[in-house]
Description:
This protein is 37% helix and 24% strand. It has helices at residues 2-14, 17-24, 28-42, 58-67, 70-81, 99-105, 110-116, 168-174, 228-236, 246-254, 282-295; strands spanning 47-49, 54-56, 91-97, 120-126, 140-143, 152-166, 190-191, 202-207, 213-217, 224-225, 242-245, 259-261, 265-266, 268-277. The longest helix has 15 residues, at 28-42. The chain starts with a helix and ends in an 8-residue tail after the last helix.
Amino acid sequence: MLENIFLFVTLVKNQSFSKTAKSLKISPATLTRKIQELEKFFGKILLVRDTRNIRLTEDGETVYIRFKDILIHMEEIIEKFNPNSHSIPDSQLRIVLPIGLSTKLINPYLCTFIEQYPQIKLAIIYNNEITDLKDNDINLAITCKPVNSKEYDYRLLRSETVDLYCTPEYAKQFGIPDKPEDLHHHNVLGGNDYLNSKPLKYIKLTNRYTNEKYLIDNSKTSISVNIATHALEIGLTSKLIFGSFNYLCEDSLNSGKIIRVLPEYYAYKQDFYIVSNKRLTRPEQAFIDFIYSCINRLIAKTN
């Protein structure tokens, strides 16, 4: 069973069945069978897999947190008997991080990475898009678009949605819509095109269960923004229904400052990718592992 736990931990870190199978020199079918054996052993579903994502269940997170250090302990043993095998040299990494995603999920933990790897210096560039790593002397990037180049490796990191919210005060005064068409009778924060900043003609709501689409007229909105990161700040202080990325709204939602509106719909979906050179250095791999720990909420802030 120890082998299956090792495979599970490695799979979570890689976020890819094919990559994990290839790196461990086993078939994807064997890896799938081993994970299923582990789930049967614990009597719990540990992860949910769709066509592009691997998502841990609550039980899966518990198992991963309990056993994630198993790889570190193995590396420590290897390091003890072969000191040159896994040492990370002094180095500097130039990293491109997206502005919004970093705010809550990465920035609070950067000092934790530095404490773990004091020999690595980070130069962070905040930018939502990067077209070429080599021309900009970048080691790796998290970007909103995959880089169309055979020179680089890219993998889907995470898909995020912009959901609708309002304050309890707004709900008390104006009520909450029961269906998308009810939004025509509410004050809604509008959206601008992210690339050219021009107001969108419509806001498209998508049912996350049926994929049904519904268009909301954007021309009548009194305020429109092109970055969902700032929509939360506006929504908290205005009598508006607004859309923002759910990871940005978690704290306000849990504290009762905002409530969900039409939770079965989302207004926008954004994919995030890790782009890197095909051959990774040890510092680069260490930072990628760190990013996955941040995204999967498996890392604690440094006090």
